[in-house]
Amino acid sequence: MPIASVNANTLFLIILILTSILLPAAGKSETLHLAVAANFTDVTRIVVPLFEKHTDHNVKVSFGSTGKLYAQIVHGAPFDIFLAADEARPRRLAEEGYAVKGSGFTYARGRLVLWSADKNLFNKGEAFLRDDSFRKLAIANPSTAPYGLAAQQVLQHLGIWEALSAKLVRGDSISQAFQFTATGNAELGLVAASQVKAWPQPGSQWVIPDDYYQPISQQAVLLKRGEQNAAAVAFISFLRSNEARTIIRDYGYAVE
What we know:
This protein is α/β, with parallel strands linked by helices. The chain has helices at 8-22, 41-55, 66-74, 88-95, 125-131, 146-157, 174-182, 193-198, 230-239, 242-250; strands at 31-37, 58-64, 81-83, 105-110, 112-116, 137-140, 168-171, 188-192, 204-207, 216-222.
């Protein structure tokens, strides 16, 4: 196939496969600095130890909202890979020269859930939201967290965004929004399905219909700093593996 007919993603994948074969030959373990969207915390804590066991590389992880991690990368934070909760910011990083062009791919598709730790709080989530009989509803900050933006879209779809504005408790990330809900500081929250799945008790929950908000396509991207890092290249390959994809799926995400 002529090189001119290969698109950027395909070409990057070919280079990635070749590099992942050649780099381990040096037999040197390296350290990977990973920036991860907060909603992916539970999966990361399983995937990273498996990766370290398979490769002998070391991984240091920083969790946060996608918007704040993006800002840190732009201001020089020493990350090698960014696992975002959207596709917009990885694309912007590539356009702005902070990430390797063609390296972005969707590693998970997120789902939003209305959830309460109280199993008796509601049976019909949409009706409960519309009834407006609760004190506080936790969401992530729509400006910095894709799951927060999705929560805003749900409430706008239902026509109650303005009516509930005084009752909203905004977390810096989806992890903080979940924490507010799990501790009872907010009776319920619009949180990630993966967080609910990892929680030991089901509580009350309503899985939000997909057409109530824009798809949450979570993209990974190799940053410029990690381009020559064997650990970063190996982790990208591992994240695409069937083993990692099975774990991601088990935590309530859709995978391509």
